[in-house]
Amino acid sequence: AHELNNPLLVISGRAQLLAEGESDQGKKQILEQIQANAQKASAIIEDLMSFAEPTKPRSERTDVRKIINEAIDLTCQMTNVEHINVQVEVAEDVENVFVDSAQIVSAIANVISNAVESYSGKVGPIKITADADESGNMVRLTISDQGCGMDAETLQKATQPFFSVRPAGRKRGMGLAYTARFVQINKGSLDIESEPGSGTKVTICLPRQ
Q1: How many other CB atoms are found less than 10 A from the CB of residue 131?
Q2: How far apart are CA 154 and CA 163, in angstroms?
Q3: What is the C-alpha to C-alpha distance for residues 102 and 95, in angstroms, rounded to an integer?
Q4: Mean pLDDT value of segment 193-202
Q5: Residues β-bridged to residue 128
Q6: Calpha distance 9→114 (Å, rounded)
Q7: Is 199 left (phi over 0), alpha (psi -120 to 50) or beta?
Q8: What are the pLDDT digits (tens) for 17-31?
């Protein structure tokens, strides 16, 4: 990855220098396109590197409601949706989880973002619940929507890096891949259930200590 990134940085930098000194608007536009696409390629490599070797979690006791609220706020920024129809229910016996809050907020925001995008028109209801699992050692977060859902083939590949059902060039397909990776390194588990036309339910279990 580093061997690829270094020449891309040179290409991007040289194209920028040439563009700044170019008076011909047609040539200037071409040089700016070279720079922009070199930066896109570099960003893809960075995505793969951070997925393969993410930052080691800095786990601490964090309030579950705080994590959910921050994830909803982050989703609004990611999707450019001012208000998301989210119903949150947290069980009385659930307070904290022992995780890296920044990583888990990002993981949950990616799931909520997918839920938002699963609705073709107006953003429909998204339900988030938090309760203790059967063992009492884990907090079970469930995020469910009533959107378009996924077929079995799509569901099987949903957490693979760069997989996306959207047309090429729209998104890099790292959302659920990051979610799975962040949950894994925080000693949690991820389960996804979905059917076409019936919505999707994502269950994330996180350690309480």
Answers
A1: 16
A2: 9
A3: 17
A4: 92
A5: 88, 143
A6: 32
A7: left
A8: 999 999 999 999 999
- Cβ distance 11 to 32 under 8 Å? no
Residue with tokens 């990583």: 103
**Nearest Cα to Cα of residue 1 among 54, 56, 46:** 46
Q: Name the more confident of 162 and 18.
A: 18
Task: Give the whole-angstrom CA distance, residue 136 versus residue 64.
Answer: 15
Query: Does the pLDDT at position 1 exceed 60?
Result: yes
Q: What b/e string do you get for 104-117 counting C-beta neighbours within 10 Å, with b at 16 or more?
A: bbbbbbbbbbbbbb
